[in-house]
Specification:
The complex is a heterotrimer.
Chain A: H1 13-39, H2 44-52, H3 54-57, H4 59-84, H5 92-109, H6 114-142, H7 146-166, H8 200-217, H9 219-229, H10 231-236, H11 241-244, H12 247-265, H13 279-289, H14 297-317, H15 323-337
Helix pairs in contact in A: 1-2, 1-14, 1-15, 2-14, 4-8, 4-12, 4-13, 4-14, 5-6, 5-7, 5-12, 5-13, 6-7, 6-12, 8-9, 13-14, 13-15, 14-15
Chain B: E1 2-11, E2 21-29, E3 33-38, H1 44-51, E4 59-64, E5 67-69, H2 74-79, E6 82-85, H3 97-102, E7 108-109, E8 113-114, H4 116-129, H5 145-157, E9 163-167, H6 175-190, E10 194-198, H7 202-208, E11 211-216, E12 219-225, H8 231-238, E13 257-267, E14 270-277, E15 281-285, H9 292-300, E16 309-312, E17 315-316, H10 322-329, E18 330-333, H11 337-340, H12 348-353, H13 362-367, H14 369-381, H15 397-408, E19 415-419, H16 427-442, E20 446-451, H17 454-460, E21 463-468, E22 471-475, H18 482-489
Parallel strand pairs in B: 3-10, 3-11, 6-9, 9-10, 15-20, 15-21, 18-19, 19-20
Antiparallel strand pairs in B: 1-2, 1-4, 4-5, 7-8, 11-12, 13-14, 13-16, 16-17, 21-22
Chain C: H1 3-30, H2 38-56, H3 58-82, H4 87-110, E1 116-117, H5 136-140, H6 145-162, H7 165-175, H8 177-182, H9 187-213, E2 215-216, H10 224-234, H11 239-262, H12 267-293
Antiparallel strand pairs in C: 1-2
Helix pairs in contact in C: 1-6, 1-7, 1-9, 1-10, 1-11, 2-3, 2-4, 2-9, 2-10, 3-4, 3-9, 6-9, 7-9, 10-11, 11-12
Classes of the chains: A mainly alpha, B alpha/beta, C mainly alpha.
């Protein structure tokens, strides 16, 4: 082994690694887009235009992408907080959905205006936390496996939310299966009407910045990261492991709920059945592509949002299936977790 | 007759710049015990694995009975008559002894189904042949350490080996069990087999070996007749700079009680009472399987003591706020380092500073300058070699323990719980640990030393106990010799 | 059929695919890397059955339904090993990939993303004459052929894991891979075989589900792949336990279906019950285990 390091600055690997992963993901995504354009659509040129030109052509389109990225980023942040604390939660989908339903419910009932907006957002966040709570408490008091409980509760809550939207809380005046519309004034304000841009992307970016600061610059963030890697070690170092065992799961729930609230209070105007539409699962992918680094989350989210936007557009102008985006996302996720053989230093063999 | 010859073996592991073996030689004649010694990281286990086909060398030649051989897997080596009893268990714990022995050569019924009864029969036959009492139907996880050794040896001999490679075989055996092993080795010698004996224990080597070869940094540096050596010259061979032993008994005057176990529950119907005062070292020695690990868990607060209590500085351990207890009061050197004392995939720096983490002001921590400098200082103090920003898993075993020592023994913790602290360290590292512990005692710390190695206790303890089947017996320092100690440890002298 | 007979038949029909997937999951749990992608593999099996069956007939479809997921599982493991990717993440991504890919292929082959109804692919019922026998009748007989394919997969997997050397080797691979090295075996090869087995049995489950309907329905597996994983966990990662847990879930799901018809509880809430109950079971089970250890 080499001798002690001289007074050198931190090696750049902390930034290189997420950057490499993002670049790889972008490259692979582009490659697959090209492949699908050529093979799976009747008009390759139109497909390519749909991906590479249309989404950037108008501010409306770009705002829509930013909005979609915002929902993904906030949810992915929820995934990140839980994962870095060592809790593998699969409950995101249900938490987002619950957040949307709760926000729509509260938004329709509360006095319309900024107060209504804040109440709706709060309800959304709380609903997300509520769906995450059984896993958090189960972990804290019974040591129950978070992977299983979070998934099971999430599935149950998705079904419950489906029932609420289609049943007792359905808006009969709407052709879609949806809840009552939230008054205009209580929705997320448009920053540049008639475009869809709301403060959501700014909030998302701010939250990512906060998370970045927390994990890399604060002592508690470091303690939480160490807990995530080895709980026994953290206990022996006197870290607040009791709190760590459940609060991060709850925070993850809050973030997912908030993402759901954004979904409902954005251009949807209320909670529509199936509104969460795979955001929970995509958020896991976003988090992975970002390598669990908050600073990289917004970019990973934009990548996914771009794929969705391009795919939607391509489905209109050529006959590329809208599921192409899902397939590309899945392949990019798989590639992002591959580790190049050069990087990992193997431990020296004993004796 | 020459049974085995390895020449010029070179081996490096994928991304390591340093070679594990850099031109090592070794040969073994029939009817001899040839000891292989060296510091940690010298390459002994690697050479053993190459000799039995578990690793493939980058360069070099292997010859079996004079004819060149190339092993592509352990199966080839087995067929050539080479068996390995590894240092760390290679048995599958959830399976039985018979199942482990049969793995890969399972007897079949109707061609496809596993013939369990035949496997058990074969295993029992083999155990009989070597005079072992281990039950082939027992689950490996339920075996005591000596029986597990027996099972490992059986597995190695099951394919008719005439070269047996033993890697640190007695590290967990009692004196009596070790003697049984030596008797077995004697029988093998007489039958014309050859034994490669890898060990740290000078006394055993001198008793048992015919020849001694020394590896240093992956190279063979000496190969001598064992008769020409004594303990001192053997140690010199291994590390040319002589390691000095720590100052034995302490001059400190024991003060107030720092750690007290009162009726603390060690196991079913077993409780323990123990008191460690400031300025003294209390040593407890036991063989594996006698609740030493339970004692460690009790003293470290990882196991509930009810209905008894564990008091630290007069206060119930459970009542202490964990941050203060763990970071300011208690230094804990666990036996299991990877799972308790390190975050193996985090940076070395993180594990080094883990206890000081919250002592930094938020701004100071954020800027990272102070912490980094502190980490370097800590590492330097204990001769830790490795990249601080790299993951802890890249460190060798010896360096990992240095990391733990650097962190835990920093400052003057009132209570030190040292469990097998020198395990896995070369003689230089071992004397460093002993010296540090003696210094801490001189400065008033209370040290509870738990070890499976009687030498640790003999060197350092002011008061010592033997733990047998969960019961403590105080040892009289005057009459402490190998024989009576062995008697205490194996229950003969009770 | 009487109400009880219907309940028994539906419980059996629900049990077989679930047990097949769960035993596949158990094999991968033995080798230490639980296959999260069972959900996707079930769907792959069902879709392969419909896609190949539509062109070459139902039995070719069955063969494809078994082989395609087995190959996919093999590739999944290969990727995780060679590219040193996280097996958990790869499995999750796989679960996203399969429905998307199936939808794309379905679009190309059948011009629809939705239900592909091919009555010719509804497998014939077997032994209906015996289905009248009390208790055992509705349980064992009168099911469509896909059920028996899944039953075959269950029997085969149970034999390999419980009574053949493979089960031993797989468990050793999960506990201490070195033990295999000394036996001259390759733990990677054993892991690979466990994955192939899991693909095959999950595929059988998919075939059973699609064969019952004679159609490809997006979301065919309806969470069964996940429930299979829970069954492995609840079964204490043992063969008998896993089968028992699968039985438990199949019974719950049957009751939910029956309850939906009998009481007018909303369908969604009734479907949510099994998930909730299982979550409670996991938490309570965990709490009890903790108490026992203390």
């Amino acid at each position: 082994m080499s001798s002690l390091e001289p007074l050198a600055p931190a090696p750049p690997s902390r930034f290189v690694e997420p950057l490499r992963r993002l670049a790889l993901s972008l490259g692979l995504a582009s490659l697959l887009v090209g492949l699908f354009a050529a093979v799976a659509s009747s008009d390759a040129a139109a497909t390519l235009r749909a991906f590479y030109v249309s989404p950037f052509r108008s501010s409306v389109m770009m705002s829509a992408m930013a909005e979609a990225a915002a929902y993904l980023a906030v949810a992915a942040l929820g995934v990140l907080v839980a994962y870095r604390s060592g809790h593998f939660s699969l409950g995101g989908e249900g938490q987002v959905y619950a957040g949307a339903v709760a926000a729509a419910f509260a938004g329709a009932l509360a006095p319309s205006g900024p107060v209504g907006l804040l109440v709706a957002l709060a309800f959304g966040a709380l609903a997300g936390a509520a769906v995450g709570a059984p896993s958090a408490l189960g972990r804290r008091f019974a040591g129950a496996d978070v992977l299983l409980t979070s998934f099971l509760i999430s599935q149950a809550s998705i079904l419950a939310a489906d029932w609420l939207i289609a049943g007792p809380w359905r808006d009969p005046a709407n052709n879609l299966v949806a809840m009552r519309a939230v008054p205009r004034a209580s929705l997320l304000p448009r920053l540049a009407p008639p475009g869809p841009l709301t403060p959501a992307p700014i909030v998302a970016a701010a939250l990512c910045a906060v998370a970045w600061f927390y994990f890399s610059k604060t002592r508690q963030g470091k303690a939480l990261s160490l807990y995530g890697k080895n709980q026994l070690f953290a206990a022996l170092m006197g870290y607040p492991v009791k709190a760590f065992s459940w609060l991060p799961i709850l925070v993850g729930g809050v973030l997912h709920g908030l993402a759901g609230a954004f979904l409902a209070l954005g251009s949807n105007g209320t909670a529509v059945r199936g509104i969460s539409g795979g955001v929970g699962w995509s958020a896991i992918g976003v988090c992975l592509i970002a390598g669990n680094e908050p600073a990289a989350l917004p970019f990973a989210a934009l990548l996914f949002a771009w794929l969705d936007a391009g795919s939607r557009q391509a489905a209109i102008v050529s006959d590329l299936s809208p599921d192409a985006a899902t397939v590309i996302k899945a392949l990019v996720i798989m590639a992002a977790t591959a580790r190049p053989l050069l990087k990992r230093p193997k431990a020296r063999g004993e004796s | 007759m020459e049974l085995l010859r390895l020449s010029g073996i070179v081996k490096s592991f994928s991304s390591n710049a340093v070679r594990a073996l850099d031109g090592a030689d070794f040969d073994l004649r029939s009817g001899e015990v040839h000891a292989l010694v060296g510091e940690n990281g010298a390459g002994k286990s690697t050479l053993a694995k190459i000799a039995c086909g578990l690793l493939i060398p980058d360069a070099g030649a292997i010859a079996v009975r004079g004819r060149p051989a190339a092993f592509r897997s352990h199966r080839d080596a087995e067929r050539a008559g080479i068996g390995l009893v590894p240092q760390y268990s290679m048995l599958a714990p959830g399976l039985t002894v018979a199942e482990n022995l049969a793995l890969g050569h399972e007897p079949r019924r109707f061609g496809a189904f596993f013939d369990r009864r035949k496997a058990e029969y074969d295993a029992a036959l083999l155990a009989d042949r070597y005079g072992f009492a281990v039950d082939p139907r027992a689950g490996v996880a339920s075996l005591g350490p000596a029986e597990r050794r027996e099972a490992e040896i059986l597995r190695a001999m099951a394919r008719g080996a005439n070269v047996l490679i033993l890697d640190e075989p007695t590290s967990i055996l009692s004196e009596e069990e070790a003697r049984a092993l030596f008797a077995l080795i004697g029988r093998l010698k007489a039958a014309g087999a050859g034994v490669v004996y890898i060990s740290h224990r000078a006394k055993e080597i001198l008793d048992l070996a015919d020849r001694v070869s020394v590896l240093r940094n992956g190279r063979s540096v000496a190969s001598v007749d064992a008769k020409s050596l004594d303990e001192c010259s053997l140690a010199e061979l291994i590390i040319p700079t002589g390691a000095c032993r720590a100052d034995g008994r302490g001059e400190g005057k024991p003060g107030r009680p720092v750690l007290e176990l009162r009726g603390a529950r060690l196991g079913p119907e077993l409780s323990v009472d123990l008191c460690v005062r400031s300025g003294e070292v209390v040593g407890v020695v036991a063989l594996a399987g006698n609740y030493l690990d339970a004692l460690e868990d009790l003293a470290s607060g990882l196991r509930p003591s009810a209905p008894g209590t564990v008091l630290v500085l007069g206060r119930d351990m459970a009542a202490w706020p964990s941050a203060e207890l763990r970071r300011k009061i208690m230094a804990y050197l666990p036996t299991e380092r990877e799972s308790r004392a390190l975050s193996i995939r985090s940076a070395v720096e993180d594990s080094l500073l883990a206890k000081r983490l919250f002592s930094y002001a938020p701004a100071a921590y954020a800027s990272r300058r102070r912490p980094r400098a502190d980490a370097r200082a800590l590492a330097a103090e204990l001769g830790l070699r490795g990249r601080l920003s790299g993951p802890a898993e890249a460190l060798s075993g010896g360096n990992r323990q240095r990391l733990v020592l650097a962190r835990e023994l920093d400052g003057e913790p009132p209570l030190v719980l040292a469990c097998n602290p020198a395990q896995g360290l070369d003689p230089g590292g071992r004397s460093l640990v002993m010296r540090r512990l003696a210094e801490l005692r001189a400065r008033g710390s209370a040290v509870l030393l738990l070890s499976q190695d009687p030498d640790d206790i003999a060197e350092l303890a002011d008061r010592s106990f033997a733990l047998y089947r969960g019961r403590l017996a105080e040892l009289d320092p005057e009459s402490l010799d190998a024989g009576s100690l062995a008697g205490h440890l194996t229950g003969a002298l009770r | 059929m009487s109400g009880l007979a219907q309940l028994l038949a539906s419980a059996a029909a629900g049990f077989m695919p679930l047990a097949a997937a769960a035993l596949g999951g158990l094999a991968t749990e033995y080798v230490g890397v639980l296959n999260i992608a069972l959900e996707g593999l079930i769907m792959a099996g069902g879709f392969a059955y419909v896609a190949v069956g539509s062109a070459f007939g139902p039995w070719a479809g069955v063969a494809a339904g078994l082989a395609v997921p087995a190959v996919l599982a093999y590739l999944q493991d290969l990727f995780a090993r060679k590219a040193r990717a996280d097996a958990f993440v790869t499995g999750l991504a796989f679960n996203l990939l399969v429905p998307g890919a199936a939808s794309m292929i379905s679009q190309a082959m059948f011009r629809t993303k939705g239900v592909v109804n091919l009555p010719a692919l509804a497998l014939p019922r077997v032994g209906e004459a015996l289905a009248g026998a009390p208790v055992l009748g509705p349980l064992l007989f009168g099911h469509h052929a896909g059920f028996y394919v899944a039953a075959g997969a269950v029997a085969y997997a149970a034999a390999r894991l419980g009574f053949m050397p493979f089960g031993l080797r797989a468990r050793a691979a999960g506990m201490n891979p070195d033990a295999l090295g000394l036996g001259g075996l390759d733990p990677q090869a054993i892991r690979s075989r466990a994955y192939v087995l899991s693909g095959m049995t999950a595929g059988a489950a998919g075939v059973a589900l699609a064969g019952a309907l004679g159609a490809w329905v997006p979301g065919l597996s309806a969470g069964r792949g996940w429930i299979a994983l829970v069954a492995v966990y609840l079964g204490g990662k043992r063969l008998s336990g896993t089968v028992a847990a699968s039985l438990f879930f199949a019974a719950l799901l049957s009751l939910a279906l029956v309850g939906q018809a009998a009481f007018s509880v909303p369908a969604e809430l009734l479907s949510a019950m099994p998930y909730l109950l299982t979550a409670v079971a996991v938490i309570v089970g965990s709490a009890m285990k903790g108490h026992r250890a203390a």
